[in-house]
Each structure stands twice: as C-alpha cells, then as structure tokens.
Design goal:
This protein is α/β, with parallel strands linked by helices. It has two domains: about 1-85, no CATH class; about 105-270, 60s Ribosomal Protein L30, Chain: A, CATH 3.30.1330.60. About 50% of the residues lie in helices and about 15% in strands. It has helices at about 1-45, 55, 60-85, 125-140, 180-190, 210-230, 255-260; strands spanning about 105-110, 115-120, 120, 145, 150, 160, 195-200, 240, 265-270. The strands form two sheets. It has a seven-stranded mixed beta sheet with strand order 4-2-1-6-9-7-8. The protein has a two-stranded parallel sheet with strand order 3-5. Helix 1 (about 1-45) runs parallel beside helix 3 (about 60-85). The N and C termini lie far apart (about 110 Å). Residues about 1-85 have low confidence and may be disordered. It is found in: Cell outer membrane. InterPro entries: Bact_OuterMem_StrucFunc (IPR050330), OMP_bac (IPR006664), OmpA-like (IPR006665), OMPA-like_CS (IPR006690), OmpA-like_sf (IPR036737). Keywords: Cell outer membrane, Membrane.
Length: about 270
C-alpha cells in the first residue's frame, strides 16, 4: 500500500507535465496557422494589383501592390519616352567645301519620298543633327547626306525645297487627289518641326492676262495653305504666295511646257538642328 501511495504522486506530476506539453503544442500550431493565413493574404494581394479593396485592407499586401503599380508606371513612362526620342544619327565624315566657290548654306531637297541634304555646315555634328531631325519625320533610311564642311557658313537653319510635280489643269485650282498624301506629310513635318514655316508659291502658264494669272496663282497656293490649317497648323506658320506667270520653268510655247509651269512650289524654312 505504501508503494502505491508513493507512485500516485509521481503519476499525477507526469500527467500534469504531459497536459502542459500538449497545451503548448496546440498553441504553437495556432500561431503557425495565423502566420500562414497572413502570408496567404499578402500573396493574394500581390497577385491582384487591380483589386483595390484587398490591397487597402492588408498592410503587407498594400505595400507589394503599391510597388508593382509604381514599377508598372515607371516602365510605361520609360517606354513612352523611348518612343518619342529622335533616332540616333551616325557619325559623319564630310569632305571640305571648295573655298574658291561661294559658300552655300544647308539646303535639303525632297523628291519622290527621299530627302537629300546638301550645302555646307561648319562641323559634322551639325550635319548629324539635321539628319536626326529629318529622320524623325520620314525615317533615317530615306535621308541622304551630301553636305560639305565650310567654316564660312553659320549652318544654323536649313531650308527644304519640295521638288514634286504638284500641277493643275488649265485655269483650275483643283489638284489631283493623289497629292493628298504629300500634303499630309507636310502637316506632319510642320507638327514635328514646330520652329519651321512653310512657304507655298503658286504659278501659272502665260495663257491669259497678267491680272488673271496672278489671282489664279495666289488661289492655287491658298488651297495648300488651307489644307495645312485644316490639319491643325497655325495660319501664321503657312504662307501663300502667287507668282503668276513670272517664274516659268519650261517653255510656254509647248503644251508640255505650259503644263509644267502650272504648278505649286513649297519650301520649308527655318528648320533648326534641334
């Protein structure tokens, strides 16, 4: 009996220790479950950037969502900046100009979708700057540089002559619809080169009186100017000029010569290196 009495307290102590250990294990599992729940919520918020309400409720998830949104905004901003950046121009090696000839300021000629840059500049960097600006309008592959180096010129502005067959029937101001694409390019160039001005000159053949031909040439120039203004170009940046029959480029004695003289000429003036 004494042995039994001695064993009972020991069993009671062991039982209490066991119950305590079981209680501690249960409590640890509960804490682990809470931690897992928090982790699950945060992961769900990070993958649900568009959720809004979930991100606001969970502190950890809100931070992750905010970081993702900021990163996305930064990426979008970088992409936009890259798309509007002018194309890089290659390094240019230009021959020297003939110092015995008169100096020639920079001049571009646009013909058949291609632009040739000629004349002279004081340094190759200036020619590369003009190439970069022109390439931003029509593509670098459509621009050819044939400039020379001449310290006598300033080279700070470039003139571009549009050498296209923009012609009219006799006594008419109606132009062929095929030229609308060319006029659209003129609008785009004026938008991308906001410092420039477009001067449009109308011409006629020598059939009719000087007064009639002067008015007709002015009207021919004006329809081009009106097209630019409808395209969003401020009126002060496009100038209409009528030359009448005073500046022929062909013989008015032939039908072909008269047709060539019934034309529009356009010059983009004041283009800077940027």
């Amino acid at each position: 009996m004494d042995k039994v009495l001695k064993v009972v307290p020991v069993l009671l102590v062991l039982g209490l220790v066991g119950l305590f250990l079981l209680w501690r294990a249960s409590d640890d599992d509960g804490q682990t479950a809470v931690g897992t729940g928090t982790s699950t919520t945060a992961t769900s918020d990070a993958g649900d950037d568009d959720g809004g309400a979930t991100s606001t409720e969970a502190g950890g998830g809100s931070t992750t969502s905010s970081s993702s949104t900021t990163a996305a905004a930064t990426t979008t901003s970088t992409s936009t900046t890259t798309s509007t950046t002018a194309p890089a121009a290659p390094a240019l090696e230009l021959p020297p100009a003939d110092q015995a000839a008169p100096p020639m300021e920079p001049l571009g000629v646009y013909r058949d979708g291609k632009l040739t840059l000629g004349g002279s500049v004081p340094d190759p960097e200036l020619a590369a700057a003009y190439l970069r600006r022109a390439g931003g309008v029509i593509g670098m592959e459509n621009v050819t540089v044939q400039m020379t180096l001449d310290p006598r010129v300033s080279g700070q502005t470039l003139r571009i002559d549009v050498d296209e067959r923009f012609q009219f029937p006799t006594g008419s101001t109606a132009f062929d619809p095929e030229f609308e694409a060319l006029l659209g390019l003129g609008v785009a160039a004026l938008q991308l080169l906001p410092e420039s001005t477009l001067v449009v000159t109308g011409h006629t053949d020598d059939v009719g009186s000087d007064e009639v031909n002067q008015a007709l040439s002015q009207a021919r120039a004006q329809i081009v100017v009106d097209f630019m203004v409808r395209g969003g170009i401020p009126p002060e940046r496009v100038v209409a000029r009528g030359a009448g029959e005073s500046e022929p480029i062909a013989d008015n004695a032939t039908p072909e010569g008269r047709q060539a003289n019934r034309r529009i000429e356009a010059t983009l003036e004041g283009v800077t290196p940027g």
